[in-house]
Amino acid sequence: MGLFKRGKVWWMSLNYQGKQVRKSTETTDRRLAEAIQGKVLVSIVEGKFFDKLQEQERTLKEMIERYFEEHGNTLSTAYALRNTAKRLYEALGEERVLAEITSDVIARYKTKRAADGMAPASINRELALLSGAFNRARRQWKWCRINPVSEAGLCPGEVERDRWLTPEEEARLLAACPRWVQEMVLFDLNTGLRFSELAALQWSDIDLQRKLLIVQKSKNKTKRTIPLNQSALAILKNRIRSTKTNLVFYSRCHTRHWANNVWRTFKAATREAKVEDFRLHDLRHTFATRLVQRGKDLYGVQRLLGHKDSKMTQRYAHHSPESLRAVVDVLDITIPAQSGGVGREAVG
Predict the structure, then answer these.
(1) pLDDT in tens, 51-61
(2) Which of 47, 58, 114, 191 is least enclosed by beta carbons within 10 angstroms?
(3) Quick one: what percent of the chain has pLDDT higher than 90?
(4) Residue 71 is a catalytic residue
(5) Is 219 an active-site residue?
(6) Dihedral of CA 276/282/288/291: which sign?
(7) How many Cβ atoms sit within 10 Å of the Cβ of residue 278?
(8) How far apart are CA 138 and CA 151, in angstroms?
(9) Which residue in 67, 109, 250, 316 is the catalytic one?
(10) In sequence order, what DSSP letters do the residues of 70-124 get, joined into one string?
(11) 3-state secondary structure of 253
């Protein structure tokens, strides 16, 4: 660490994690600059200074772009999130430093977006991107100390999305999809995988003899096992294995399918098939909805989807009224049989 002058102002030069960082002392007085330097040394020892330094120098755009670089290609909605990022830049300022994005700024942002006519679900999608980037910046990169989105909270009043394919829509959609997308759609409808799990699926994750698929690393960083039905097995048995990759579903270059490319092709197919308001992730919703509609218990569906919290799976409960019939039917056998009917007297 050393002091040097820029014009008349004294600056500090610091080496941190292999990088040289320069910070102004904001004074022309050498003795005051030395005193500030001493305080910084103490802060470094206490582990406080660099948290403050990073969040005062790192910008919103810098944080979100690094988030996309490290995490974006695994998101099934990455293409749409690029547009979401642009809206955040316009509303908050892409060169705004992280320290200036407080919970109050987020609260004002929500109020402004609502006044512009945005639905709570749309606002929350924008906030979800911002919150995800802040969480990574806080936990892994140590760029900031808090997540202001978590402190401000999401918009209330969001209606839970409940969209799944009918058999008729499925037939039209599959007919409109090119073969490579068609196979991925069918496989997802029978396994309920997230797109990131589907794109990363390898032959080493599949046991054809035992009819099992193992998700090695899910969203919540845990493994889960999915039994393969006959439809899923048929797709796998008809797949041509590449000698250049271990991936089950791969591109023409024998590399992983990126979400943006699949999303664009899938979106074009939904338009052609006239399947409205249907997203790639809704294939997973369709898988879960169909299981519940056929009377399968929510705990089993939770295990297949890999939800840690049962509240995530509970959204499908309203699809299973018939599964509750057995609960109320038990009352019939507790009521004594009356030959004349309930509330009627027998005529002698």
Answers:
(1) 566 788 889 99
(2) 47
(3) 49
(4) no
(5) yes
(6) positive
(7) 20
(8) 14
(9) 316
(10) HHGGG-TTHHHHHHHHHHHHHHH-TT-BGGG--HHHHHHHHHHHHHTT--HHHHH
(11) coil
Tokens of 286: 């369709």
Question: Exposed/middle/buried for 218, CB within 10 Å: 0-12, 13-18, 19+?
Answer: middle
Express each pLDDT in 54-101 by its tens digit.
Answer: 788 889 999 999 998 887 655 545 566 888 899 999 999 999 999 899
- List the catalytic residue out of 30, 219, 241, 294: 219
Overall fold of domain 60-152:
DNA polymerase; domain 1 (1.10.150)
pLDDT band of residue 343 (cuts 50, 70, 90) is very low
State the catalytic residue, choosing from 113, 194, 285, 290: 194
Q: What is the pLDDT of residues 184-202, one digit of tens each?
A: 999 999 999 999 899 999 9
CB 148 within 8 A of CB 138: no
pLDDT at position 233, please? Answer: 96
Tokens for 35? Answer: 């005193």
Mean pLDDT score of the chain: 85
Active-site residue flag, 303? no
Architecture in CATH of 167-324 = Orthogonal Bundle (1.10)
Which residue among 281, 296, 303, 315 is the active-site one? 281
> Domain spans of the chain?
2-47, 60-152, 167-324
> What is the β-pairing status of strands 206-207 and 19-24?
unpaired
Which sign does the torsion angle of CA 267, 155, 195, 314 carry? negative
Alpha helices, DSSP H only, in 93-209? Answer: 103-115, 120-139, 148-152, 167-176, 179-191, 195-200
Is 8 part of the annotated catalytic residue set? no
**Helix, strand, coil percent content, the chain, rounded in steps of 5:** 55, 10, 35
